[in-house]
Write a structure and sequence with these properties.
Number of domains: 1
Oligomer: single chain
Strand order of the largest sheet: 1-15-14-11-10
Number of helices: 1
Number of strands: 33
Helix content: under 10%
Strand content: 35-45%
CATH superfamily: Kelch-type beta propeller
């Protein structure tokens, strides 16, 4: 276990029970689902601006925000391959999940608004996107996770990365319908949702009041059988925009930020449910927030993320990461791999089969520019 102490990073890391249901029309067969879904054509615009929702070409200054270097020892590079673009440029979904071999991306920024109810589903077998039933209420930074044929969507923000919401829903994959469940005990957005042993853990995030938007370490568990929430031991260091995965009966929370991306962290904690306690593990090589984190080949792969300093209401020293770093829970060590082709943060990332799919995300620090870029990573020869 790492003996490092928690660190604040203030620098650019450049070296490295209601039952209301909702449904959409079914137009095209979507294999593996009990209902059909309409196909959604890939976007022809890789980037768009939040302001006005117009197509956007990255400026020289914005491209300069891209960071690729990792301090972690090099592992097998792997390779990235472009895939069918998202149906429209999106970001700040937080994050994505997969069920029955398909990726679900819910909510976020897009087309000039921050409270979208989008729900896109990707099938890697034929590289196609579909439109699924939208969220009952649009929001950004909605925590999502899949379990037992359901996609859970918890909390989120109603305004741009602030004004948290208590709403909670699940989507039934077989029927393409959303159902309202018991609301969050405490409103928050940018939290991490993890399924473990039939229950849904919601960890961290940022709460109210809106103007303060402070990180929280809250750890609440939803029981689908009783439609109720319970409180568990809080995350040791309150933070939001973390990476989270379940593995071997434990939950890992990696990276994230303390209130703002100016204070990114490399912290890595693991939750032991039997003891209801947290332990520290080897830190993330590149401190960051808004990164993706997935389990692939028994390792945890972290990709993307952002950093920046806000001065006078403007973002300075902005950085958008493309680093791909992986953690081996058996040896408590990290290594690096080939960076993403297109650096992004607030991405939708999932593992399906022998590949990691990373769709959408912010192309610059903050929420000013959305992306429809979709790339897949594999270690296969």
């Amino acid at each position: 276990m790492s003996s490092s102490t928690p660190k604040l990073t203030r620098r650019a890391f450049v070296a490295v029970a209601g039952s209301a249901a909702f449904c959409t029309p079914a137009l095209a067969q979507h294999a593996g689902h009990g209902s059909t879904l309409p196909e959604a054509k890939p976007s022809t615009d890789p980037f768009s601006r939040l302001q006005g929702g117009a197509p956007h070409h990255l400026t020289t200054e914005q491209i300069a925000q891209r960071k690729t270097g990792s301090p972690a020892p090099k592992g097998p590079p792997g390779r990235w391959t472009p895939k069918a673009a998202l149906p429209l440029p999106r970001s700040e979904m937080a994050w994505a999940t997969a069920w029955a071999g398909r990726m679900h991306i819910v909510g976020g920024y897009g087309e000039g608004r921050v409270d979208r109810a989008y729900h896109h589903v990707y099938d890697p077998r034929d590289d196609r996107w579909f439109n699924a039933a939208p969220l009952p209420r649009g929001a950004n930074h909605v925590a999502v996770v899949a379990d037992a044929g359901r996609i859970y969507a918890l909390g989120g923000f109603i305004e741009q990365n602030r004004n948290p919401d208590p709403n909670a829903f699940f989507y039934d994959v077989a029927s393409d319908k959303w159902t309202t469940i018991a609301p969050l005990p405490r409103s928050r957005g940018a939290a991490a949702a993890v399924a473990l042993d039939g229950k849904i853990h919601l960890i961290g995030g940022a709460g109210a009041p809106t103007m303060e938007r402070a990180s929280v370490g809250w750890h609440e568990v939803y029981d689908p059988q009783g439609d109720k929430w319970e409180i568990r031991k809080a995350l040791p260091a309150a933070r939001d925009h973390v990476g989270a995965v379940a593995h071997n009966g434990m939950i890992h929370i990696i990276g994230g930020r303390f209130n703002v991306f100016e204070y990114n962290t490399d912290l890595h904690h693991v939750y032991l449910p039997v003891q209801d306690t947290w332990k520290e593990r080897a830190p993330l090589p590149t401190p960051r927030s808004g990164h993706g984190l997935v389990v692939y080949r028994d390792r945890f792969f972290a990709m993307g993320g952002e950093y920046g300093v806000i001065e006078g209401g403007q973002i300075t020293q902005g950085a958008v990461f493309s680093q791909m770093e992986s953690y081996d829970p058996a040896t408590n060590t990290w290594q690096s791999h080939a960076p993403m082709l297109t650096p992004r943060h607030a991405v939708g990332a999932t593992t399906i089969g022998d590949a990691i799919y990373v769709a959408g995300g912010g192309a610059v620090t903050g929420g000013a520019v959305q992306s429809s870029v979709h790339e897949a990573f594999t270690l296969a020869a």
